[in-house]
Amino acid sequence: MKFTAKQIADILEGVVVGNPEAEVSKLSKIEEGELGSLTFLSNPKYNSFIYTTNASATIVNKTFEPEKEISTTLIKVEDAYKAFSKLLEFYNQVKNNKTGRENPHFIANSAKIGSNEYVGAFSYIGENVVVGENVKIYPNSYIGDNVTIGDNSVIFAGVKIYSESVIGNNCKIHSGTIIGSDGFGFAPDENGEYKAIPQTGNVIIEDNVDIGANSTIDRATLGSTIIRKGVKLDNQIQIAHNVEIGKNTVIASQSGVAGSTKIGENCMIGGQVGIVGHITLGNNVKIQAQSGIGRNLKDDAVVQGSPAFGYTDYSKSYIHFKNLPKLATTIHKLEKELNAQKDN
């Protein structure tokens, strides 16, 4: 897909300086720009590359004035970084704007599919499924019975959504993710053998939620596992049964949340964090990477460590921890001096 510099300038409400008919068909870093590519310059640290880049067009701030000859066509905008981000979003919309139904696929007769849909090959859509407008379901996806998917949501290839799950509007669920699998619920019988406890609840994912690849969100034992509006989950995250995550909370890769824990709004949780079950985390909580959370946290808490404690205390303690060999040497030296004084 090709665009001219003028077409891009029109999208970004910018001005072309150079050849308005310069064509681009791909994106690149400015230092790696080649003929036919589009790049951007917003950080003055990279100004030198504007004179050597082979990119056909470069988005720059309107205040930028080259100090010597350049070969690239400039597209001047208010804010080059924001403009390039806007262009990336537009590019993704164009690239992913597939419609229609590829074969083979299966859609149950009782399913209701909104207009402007895309259903990729080898996808399965079960009984009584309701799919909104402009939904994209990529190949090899499984949508179980009685699932609801809201408008403008994207289900990428290989996603499995178990029965009764509810997906909101404007959600993105990336490849390999499983929504609504059984929670980890087992109880020992009189012989000590573990028997599965039926997981009869569901998963509710509200609007504007993004879920990374190969993540798992378990259905509730009773009631619902709930992911509130605006939550962003990275790749490879485990959310157990009956967990609730408050709106606009973000969780980085390889973190796990055990059953029935409630996480507040606007929290930031680093990678490889483990959170035990049946606790409550307040709003605006920040948890540093690789921390272990085994207790309730109040609003605005900032913690680190395993088990985690206050971030400031952790930082001070870590300084002492790093100095332990030196402290040990000092203590041994003092012991020798004390023993020598005793001998005298």
TrEMBL record:
Keywords: Acyltransferase, Lipid A biosynthesis, Lipid biosynthesis, Lipid metabolism, Repeat, Transferase. Residues 103-182 form the Mannose-1-phosphate guanyltransferase C-terminal domain. GO terms for molecular function: N-acyltransferase activity; UDP-3-O-[(3R)-3-hydroxyacyl]-glucosamine N-acyltransferase activity. Its EC number is 2.3.1.191. GO terms for biological process: lipid A biosynthetic process. The keyword Acyltransferase applies. CDD domains: LbH_LpxD. Residues 22-89 form the UDP-3-O-[3-hydroxymyristoyl] glucosamine N-acyltransferase non-repeat region domain. The keyword Lipid biosynthesis applies. InterPro entries: GMPPB_C, Hexapep, LpxD, Trimer_LpxA-like_sf, UDP_GlcNAc_AcTrfase_non-rep. GO terms for cellular component: membrane. The active site is at 241 (proton acceptor). It is an enzyme of class 2 (transferase). Catalyzes the N-acylation of UDP-3-O-acylglucosamine using 3-hydroxyacyl-ACP as the acyl donor. Is involved in the biosynthesis of lipid A, a phosphorylated glycolipid that anchors the lipopolysaccharide to the outer membrane of the cell. Homotrimer. This is UDP-3-O-acylglucosamine N-acyltransferase. It comes from Tenacibaculum holothuriorum.
